[in-house]
Specification:
Radius of gyration: 20 Å
Shape: elongated
Order of helices and strands: HHHH
Largest sheet: none
Number of strands: 0
Helix content: 55-70%
Low-confidence stretches: none
Length: 98
């Protein structure tokens, strides 16, 4: 029994890249929220985190998450997913490219 492998299509590659980025944003969104609020307010890390929790509870760290998913699914899926197919299409993916 032999197993043949195939390269993913452009659409499959973009879907995998977008899904990976959308999954990752679940973890990076709270960090970005705290970073942005620290930049705007000029406050410290502890004060910013406690302010977010006082304002909206722990779930406030994920407020606006659907917009982060939208960004990742539209932008990063193209960036990550199209990289290898485009690289190969222009001939830069071969063993002698370099």
């Amino acid at each position: 029994m032999s197993v043949t492998t195939r390269k993913p299509t452009l659409f499959e590659s973009m879907a995998c890249g977008g899904a990976a980025a959308a999954f990752a944003v679940n973890f990076t969104h709270p960090i970005e929220l705290v970073k942005t609020r620290m930049q705007v307010s000029g406050g410290g890390l502890g004060a910013t985190i406690s302010g977010v929790v006082k304002e909206g509870g722990v779930t406030a760290f994920w407020k606006g998450l659907p917009f982060g998913w939208g960004r990742e699914l539209s932008y990063t899926s193209v960036k990550l997913g199209a990289y290898a197919p485009v690289r190969n299409a222009i001939g830069a993916g071969g063993p002698d490219a370099g």
